[in-house]
Design brief:
Number of helices: 22
Shape: globular
Strand content: 15-25%
Protein name: D-3-phosphoglycerate dehydrogenase
EC number: 1.1.1.95
Low-confidence stretches: 1-81
Enzyme class: oxidoreductase
Largest sheet: 7 strands, parallel
CATH topology of the largest domain: 60s Ribosomal Protein L30, Chain: A
Number of strands: 24
Number of domains: 3
GO biological process, one term: L-serine biosynthetic process
Main location: plastid
Helix content: 25-40%
Oligomer: single chain
Strand order of the largest sheet: 9-8-7-10-11-12-13
């Protein structure tokens, strides 16, 4: 029976359903020439995002109870504010970061502000720095009257910042993603060791006046198999340290390059092999719609009895009720948790109270060194943004010329969808290492700005497999961090350059996934697309020519070319009430190999996909969310 490739559902991310917002009124006149790139979403119409709206200045209003100053004093204050921006630091920040900020800005450290107080202060500030405790809502951006230029999140997660509102108001959002990497890895190792040797329980026992040596016999780490789930920055640091402790380390991350793992002596394995062979599991995967509760009853049932789990990543990747059941049944011997689905967890949380669980209150980044490092990293990003420099850690959008985006709008959608499609065909294989993008155009290279296209292709490739936000500023930075090499090539056509791009081809080399071998003899995933009447179309998969709209999601089937195939699959989808918007078949020759591409408006059920896989002439198939 043909099945969807590998553990595709483990790591790929569902498509965004965000709406396009109209351009807001900004305070800088030059903003009228720019449109934020993250306003580009997978929507059929871009008229509102690229309409030529008139942007006006919003005057800075004094509070009603502000003291009346002489005209000369007001001018002096205004002159000083123009010379030196104001940074509001709303939560505690390391002194090294504050000192750096003070070199270029007036720094206002006001902690524990209510939402109302923050909204009152923000209209006098050019930058805002927060940690996780301050909610930067749409109301905050509205209250800034357009003066707020940058929000700095001192840490990695940006759940407390309304990114869409920030983008609409032309405010850059930056974070500090690297400074706490080592701290998080060390905390994971510390929890693993403490769990293995029952340190927390033994300590509590002694503090209660007991001496119970025989009760707290632990297990050794040396010689045990550690599975690292998610081989990003933190995961690879955990692997290095675990190998130093004499552990056998393997990892699962369907998108991590195998050679990067081998460089530190780690083998990448399938999800099933990982969970069935692990003595210890350390979680470092991002929380996406499809990794949410990936460790559930079904996963625990397939694990080696007596395995131990450490989670310093995201609480939501574990079904907490299922973990309680696994602990009670003995499938999981122990767990060490630094993160929870709800933080802080309720007082009656069963895991917090469980005798087989060690818990800490999200301390992954809580070392003095990490705190200082985060302070410096976020201060550098904010200072750079205030100077007008491009920030490599930007998580929403830079500003690019509106006329460029207006012309390239449908090709930007095409590029992102091709990237998203290509990376899902890799799932379960050797990972993404080398990507080649080819643009066919009748325009000379100096008349075609491909930076936006490149960025959105990278976005399509990276975002389904990580929690990274990708945009024009950080696309190359993020791809480099993931170990992905991106190259570009332009094919100059003889045709008249009425349209900026004739076609875009995305090729991922050195792929060992099943679908890659099914559509290519050279171990490559190649997808190509065009824009027809403003709508992105898939025009080629491997060596097979197809023509299918990319407005919805896509089912790709590699099959024997024989009568009745379109009807067989179409009937299955029809019976499941799945609407087909496009269907195309490409083949090598009659009655030989073919690829059928089916565009669907609705997500097929697992039962429907199984029925498609059971069709005897279908050799491989995959459902791709775009």
């Amino acid at each position: 029976m043909a099945t969807a490739m590998g553990r595709l559902q483990a790591f790929h991310c569902a498509s965004s359903s965000s709406k396009i917002a109209g351009n807001p009124a900004l305070t800088q006149p030059k903003s009228a020439l720019y449109t934020p790139i993250s306003a580009l979403r997978l929507q059929p119409s871009f008229s509102s995002a690229f309409s030529g709206q008139t942007l006006t200045n919003t005057p800075l209003k004094l509070r009603a109870n502000a003291p009346i100053l002489k005209r000369r004093s007001i001018q002096a204050v205004a002159s000083d504010m123009q010379a030196k921006p104001t940074v509001l630091v709303a939560e505690k920040l390391g002194e090294a970061g504050l000192e750096l900020l003070r070199t270029v800005a007036n720094v206002d450290c006001s902690y524990n502000l209510s939402q109302e107080e923050l909204c009152t202060k923000i209209s006098l500030c050019d930058a805002l720095i927060v940690r996780s405790g301050t909610k930067v809502t749409r109301e905050v951006f509205e209250s800034s009257h357009g003066r707020l230029k940058v929000v700095g999140r001192a840490g990695v997660g940006i759940d407390n910042v309304d990114l869409q509102a920030a983008t609409e108001f032309g405010c850059l959002v930056v974070n500090a993603p690297t400074a706490n990497t080592v701290a998080a890895a060390e905390h994971g190792i510390a929890l693993m060791a403490a769990m293995a040797r029952n340190i927390a329980m033994a300590d509590a026992s002694m503090k209660a006046g007991k001496w119970q040596r025989n009760k707290y016999v632990g297990v050794s780490l040396v010689g045990k198999t550690l599975v690292v789930m998610g081989f990003g920055k933190v995961g690879s640091e955990v692997a290095r340290r675990a190998k130093g402790l004499g552990m056998h380390v393997i990892a699962h991350d369907p998108y991590a390059p195998a050679d990067r793992a081998r460089a530190i002596g780690v083998d990448l394995v399938s999800f099933e092999e990982a969970i069935s062979s692990a003595d210890f599991i350390s979680l470092h995967m991002p929380l996406t719609p499809t990794t949410a509760k990936i460790f559930n009853d079904d996963t625990f049932s397939k694990m080696k009895k007596g395995a131990r789990i450490v989670n310093v990543a995201r609480g939501g990747v574990i079904d907490e009720e299922a973990l309680v059941r696994a602990l009670d049944s003995g499938i999981v011997a122990q767990a060490a948790l630094d993160v929870f689905t709800e933080e802080p967890p309720p007082k009656d949380n069963k895991l917090v109270q469980h005798e087989k669980v060690i818990v800490t209150p999200h301390l992954g980044a809580s070392t003095m060194e990490a705190q200082e490092g985060v302070a410096v990293e976020i201060a550098e990003a904010v200072v750079g943004a205030l100077k007008g420099e491009l920030a490599a850690t930007a998580v929403n959008a830079p500003m690019v010329p509106a006329e460029v985006l207006s012309e390239l709008a449908p090709y930007v959608i095409l590029g992102e969808k091709l990237g998203r499609l290509a990376v899902q065909l890799v799932a379960g294989g050797s990972g993404v290492k080398t990507v080649k993008v080819t643009y066919a155009s009748g325009r000379a290279s100096d008349d075609l700005d491909t930076r936006v296209l490149r960025a959105m292709i990278i976005k399509g490739i990276i975002e389904p497999i990580s929690s990274s936000f990708v945009n024009l500023v950080n696309a190359d930075y993020v791809s480099k961090q993931r170990g992905v090499r991106i190259s570009e090539e332009r094919v100059l056509l003889d045709s008249s350059p009425q349209e900026p791009v004739e076609s875009i081809q995305v090729q991922i080399a050195d792929v060992e996934s099943k679908f890659a071998s099914a559509i290519s003899d050279s171990g490559e995933i190649t997808v190509e697309g065009k824009v027809k009447d403003g709508i992105p179309h898939l025009s080629k998969v491997g060596s097979f020519n197809v023509d299918v709209s990319l407005e919805g999601s896509v089912i790709l089937c590699r099959q024997v070319d024989q009568p009745g195939m379109i009807g067989a699959v179409g009937n299955i989808l029809g019976e499941e009430n799945v609407n087909v918007n496009f269907m195309s078949v490409g083949r090598i020759a009659p009655r030989r190999q073919a690829v059928m591409a089916i565009g669907v408006d609705d997500e097929p059920s697992k039962a429907a996909l199984k029925r498609i896989g059971d069709v005897s002439a279908i050799e491989e198939f995959v459902y791709l969310e775009l």
